[in-house]
Amino acid sequence: MQISFSPSLPAGLDVLICPVFFDKKHPEISKYPKALQELIKSALKNKQLLEKAESSFDIQVYAPRLPKDIILVSLGDVNKLKKSTVRNAVATGIKMARAKSKKQVALYYAEELNSYSRVIGEVLLMANYLVARYKTGKSLEIEKKRIIAAMTLVTPHKAVIETELRKGMQVGAVVNTTRSLINDPPNILSARALAEHARTISKDAGLKCIVFEKKELVKMKMGALLAVNRASDSEEDDARLVVIEHLPNKNEKPIALIGKGIIFDTGGYDLKPSKHMGDMQTDMTGAAVIMGVMSLLKKLGIKRNVIGVAAITANLVGPKAYKSSEIITSYSGKTIEITNTDAEGRVVLCDAISYAIKQYKVKQIIDLATLTGACCVALGDRYAGMMGTDKKGMSLMRKMGRSTDDLVWPLPIHPDFEEKMKSKIADIKNTEDGYYAGASKAAAFLKFFVGKTPWIHLDIAGTAYTHDPKKYESILGTGFGVRLVSAYLEALEQQA
Ligand code: BES
Ligand code: ZN
Ligand code: ZN
User: Fold this and answer.
1) Cα Rg of the chain, angstroms
2) How far is 343 from 430, CA to CA, in rounded Å?
3) Which of 342, 430, 458 is the pocket-test mutation for ligand 1 (most atoms within 8 Å of CB)?
4) Catalytic residue among 87, 346, 441, 483
């Protein structure tokens, strides 16, 4: 989206998105052109626009010097304004404007919005995402016309808002790229393609990227990742371990971001019922999110050492597929009894975690994974489950969740769960017989490999994709986690 600034309402606009406040003392409306003020007053009088924040009203206008179409969105009381209101109200305006497929679109940038420029930058892009990328011909044309290509921001304060706005737009663009990766099915986004993507974004961001291919993984004895990969029968879908380095400081232990990169999860021989297999192309969300965050580090001025590690493979069925009862030796040397091939996420993650600990002596681990259906059952699509050992880190993560609306909610790992994950014949088993506390037991499995390194685990199974999008989302991949983890790292930076 191209952005331009105009200190006053330009002529020839098709659509104007106009935020309205309701504080009686608030002078903002009086700064709007007289004709617009009249329109707003009449919409209010006729209860077409409600004072309630985020309500909206669309007016067709036939007045000289006013845009043809004005979308009023309520921001409620100016004194109660908060990020979520701005996010939802601007997203509502954008979505309504998109539906009109018009070229000249503007947003009235009330002065009170100046301090929300980061959020607005993010949401301008996030609400403008094209999800139907694989339509063709006329249908694609129609979808593309619904994307706002250029937007004028009506404000005399360009100098005050531009830096934060553009930063927000960069984040929003990465959220959208992440969504496209999540949405791409495995015949389009193969293991190789996801690793290639990591290479491309690393190159663009000036970061080092190492892709370990299957041959190397065999030499490295990454037994857990390779076990899950066994049914994949083409070079295209051989397992990969992707490592992205952002190491500006010598002798500083990095923070490791670890992502689950299952490009499709059939469940393996413990096959998922078809009802649960739908959308399992999104099972690489963790990997896509950490790649997105890595690509943003320099742009967001993060000066700490950070590495991103993604374990990539599909989880398929076939003559060679790994089976229940197998004992596999992980990269750490610890043995895993496979009791359910559908609990593959924790199996691939343990090798990525052990690699980060062994090779980089990391000071903190943050992993993101669409790990358990149990987490969806517990928290739905509004909160990711957060578990781990790093209490201070988790408290900051929760705070940044509230700030970004990528919400997280703590779940416990009781020592009994850790006990239950022990195997009678190997060091650990990948599932436990009981039905309860599935998200926590998956975390207990990971904890066994994390050891003493401070650790935050985010189970994003419920938040990674949606069929009931929020105002700033589209169906399928949400990009949940990109803004959360970026904001977390930015907050750490400010503490330094
Ligand atoms: N990828 C799934 C988890 C998932 C479920 C993600 C629903 C998104 C939506 C994961 O690999 C899985 O299958 N987990 C099993 C674990 C079980 C076998 C202990 C599950 O949750 O059913
Ligand atoms: Zn699974
Ligand atoms: Zn999975």
Assistant:
1) 24
2) 7
3) 342
4) 346
pLDDT at 130: 98
Phi, psi of 458 (to 5 degrees): -115, 110
Ligand 2 center to 206 CA (angstroms): 34
CA distances from 364 to 143, 357, 367, 451 (A): 43, 9, 10, 11
pLDDT level of residue 48 (50, 70, 90 thresholds) = confident
Strand pairing of 335-337 and 327-329?
A: antiparallel
Question: Is any ligand 1 atom within 6 A of the Cβ of residue 370?
Answer: yes
218-273 per-position pLDDT tens digit = 999 999 999 999 999 999 999 999 999 999 999 999 999 999 999 999 999 999 99
Are 368 and 460 within 8 A, CB to CB?
Answer: yes
In sequence order, which residues have a C-beta less than 8 Å from that of residue 480 and are 6 or more positions away? Answer: 285, 289, 384, 406, 460, 463, 464
Nearest to 421 by CA among 387, 458, 457, 447: 447
**Is 272 among the catalytic positions?**
yes
Cα separation of 227 and 313, whole Å? 10
Catalytic residue list contains 214: no
Determine the Cα–Cα distance for residues 341 and 231; give it in Å rounded to an integer: 12
User: Which residue in 417, 290, 280 sits closest to 356, CA to CA?
Assistant: 290
**Residue-averaged pLDDT of the chain:** 96
Ligand 1 site, residue 432, Cβ cutoff 6 A = no
Using H for helix, E for strand and C for coil, what is the string for the chain?
A: CEEEEECCCCCCCCEEEEEECCCCCCCHHHHCCHHHHHHHHHHHHCCCCCCCCCCEEEEECCCCCCCCEEEEEECCCHHHCCHHHHHHHHHHHHHHHHCCCCCCEEEECCHHHHHHHHHHHHHHHHCCCCCCCCCCHHHHHHHHHCCCCEEEEECCCHHHHHHHHHHHHHHHHHHHHHHHHHHCCCCCCCHHHHHHHHHHHHHHHCCEEEEECHHHHHHHCCHHHHHHHCCCCCHHHCCEEEEEEECCCCCCCCEEEEEEEEEEECCCCCCCCHHHHCCHHHHHHHHHHHHHHHHHCCCCCCCCCEEEEEEEEEECCCCCCCCCCCEEECCCCCEEECCCCCCHHHHHHHHHHHHHHHHHCCCEEEEEECCCHHHHHHHCCCEEEEEECCHHHHHHHHHHHHHHCCEEEECCCCHHHHHHCECCCCCEECCCCCCCCHHHHHHHHHHHHHCCCCEEEEECCCCCEECCCCCCCCCEECCCCHHHHHHHHHHHHHHC
The CA-based angle 317-319-320, given to 5 degrees, is 85
- What's the CA gap between 344 and 333, in Å, rounded? 18
